[in-house]
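Same chain as my last thread, 160 residues:
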Amino acid sequence: MDTIEILGNLTKDPDVRATKTGGCMVRFSVGSNRKYQDRATGEMKEVASFIPCVVWNELAESAANYLKKGKRVYIKGRWESRKYQDKNGQDKYITEIVVNFIALPLPVNYQKHGQAQPQKQQWNNGQNYGQQQSGSFEQFGQAKPEGNYQPRYQDEDIPF
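reply #2:
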């Protein structure tokens, strides 16, 4: 299984771009902390990881509308490493998460069986895509399943 799940905060506002074929691509980075015990001193320490992420097409449009710097987010996706050439013809390598699921925390006052219910987030076209998830997150988008995977973009779609 090639799946990764990350819970963290966006480190900056998403970078939204259009592809040459009219699709949408969004890049962002998620910061996530982990604690460990220093073997030499026995002291608990914390280290931050900054994970680059990319989202394509419909899910990218939703991410562009709802994600902002500092926003807590839960994402699922797959690791992908690829090579491209920069404007100077130099080979560059990048490893990132290709996101296919994004969920946001529900408001603090959310009660599962009480009167206070969160308003579901909506996409621009007014259709309601919010769904309650287990725990305290609300899904606002998911990419289509990847059975018989074929990339939805070609090398010429990548805007760099």
